[in-house]
Design goal:
By secondary structure, this protein is mostly helical. The chain has two domains: 212 residues, 3-Layer(aba) Sandwich (Rossmann fold); 81 residues, Orthogonal Bundle (Tyrosyl-Transfer RNA Synthetase), CATH 1.10.240.10. The protein has 14 helices and five strands. The strands form two sheets. It has a three-stranded parallel beta sheet. A two-stranded parallel ribbon has the order 4-5. Helix 4 packs parallel to helix 14, helix 10 packs antiparallel against helix 13 and helix 11 crosses helix 13. The protein is elongated and about 80 Å long. Tryptophan binds next to strand 1, strand 2, helix 8 and strand 4.
Length: 330
């Protein structure tokens, strides 16, 4: 008998368009894995509410934008399932069940929660924000995902999911799958401005939907080796943001570029131009695919609805099984 393909589930908060950091950290690997694994991509609009509850318009638009970001980089809607989190009630039900067996102290000590709370300036955390890792455990397990491809910052959440699943299964005799994290190769893309991370809220992001001109402008403003004031002063690629990007986006020429920088045979302007070319070569096919979906909004709606219906069937079954095990079914 043919074995069922392993399942992956991963997701993005719908708090704006996705950027290159998302691409290298997560999107590229999910696209590569979609043929080998049964793939679920969650549009995490409930999780987006934990920080963006007041931004109704942004959240609304982002559901479609994040879908198009995924489709434009090559996620194939014929084989991958795109799911709108808020339209899957079983995830909310599972969150409530899981919340009963999750310690508030464990959530308080979650390093990602702490970093994000600081980043957003929260002193007094909302119940929903503190508890979103519990909801994320439900996201992952409603379909019994085996593998969760994520960046490093998500590891505490996957650990918590595993802990919850073990406890629940142990208590009720269920067989919910304990998922494994699959760390992406590049888990953090630094900002071209020198910030440790590319981020929407940091204002240093190159979006997958940026035009070639926008990309050129952003690269032109990138911070390089500050000591290299003129072209004939040799540069130090180890402290240059543009060099870090070449390593990822121009890998074949990376060594040559670095030695040309060190010997002052390439200047920052030409080096940046090269990076712009590499980025636009990557992004051009994405732009073309995106344009296709932008012209067909009803197709995008249909892709989300079809995927969500499939998720509901699976999630309802999981909740039914959980309720039976908890002796809540009458
Ligand atoms: N927390 C993830 C992020 O901030 C998004 C997310 C929501 C997610 N639900 C998920 C990731 C389930 C993996 C699995 O990027």
């Amino acid at each position: 008998m043919e074995k069922r393909k392993q399942r992956i589930l991963t997701g993005d908060r719908t708090t704006g368009k996705l950027h290159l950091g998302h691409y290298v950290g997560s999107l590229s690997s999910r696209v590569a894995m979609q043929y080998e694994y049964e793939t679920f991509i969650l549009l995490a609009d409930i999780q987006a509410l934990t920080t963006h509850f007041e931004q109704k318009e942004l959240l609304h638009q982002s559901i479609r934008e994040v879908t198009m970001d995924n489709l434009s980089v090559g996620l194939d809607p014929e084989i991958a399932t795109i799911v709108q989190q808020s339209a899957v009630p079983s995830i909310a039900e599972m969150t409530v069940f899981y919340s009963m067996i999750t310690s508030v102290n464990v959530l308080r000590h979650n390093p990602t929660i702490k970093t994000e709370a600081k980043q957003y300036g929260y002193k007094d955390l909302s119940y929903g924000f503190l508890g979103y890792p519990v909801s994320q455990a439900a996201d992952i397990t409603f379909c019994n995902a085996d593998v969760v491809p994520v960046g490093e910052d998500q590891i505490p959440h996957i650990e918590l999911t595993r802990r919850i699943v073990r406890k629940f299964n142990g208590m009720y005799g269920t067989t919910i799958t304990e998922p494994e994290a699959k760390l992406s190769q590049v888990s953090r893309l630094s900002g071209l401005d020198g910030n440790a991370k590319m981020g929407k809220s940091l204002g240093n992001a190159i979006y997958l939907s940026d035009s070639s001109k926008e990309v050129a402008d952003k690269v032109r403003r990138a911070v390089t080796d500050p000591a290299r004031v003129t072209k004939d002063i040799p540069g130090d690629p180890t402290i240059c943001n543009v060099a870090k990007y070449h390593k990822i986006f121009t890998p074949d020429e990376y060594d040559t570029i670095c030695s040309m920088c060190r010997s002052a045979t390439i200047g920052c302007v030409a080096c940046k131009k090269k990076l712009t070319d590499s980025l636009n070569t990557l992004l051009d096919p994405f732009r073309e695919k995106r344009a296709y979906y932008e012209d067909r909004p009803e197709l995008v709606t249909e892709i989300i609805q079809t995927g969500t219906a499939k998720a509901n069937a699976l999630g309802n079954e999981t909740v039914r099984m959980m309720k039976d095990a908890m002796h809540l079914s009458i």
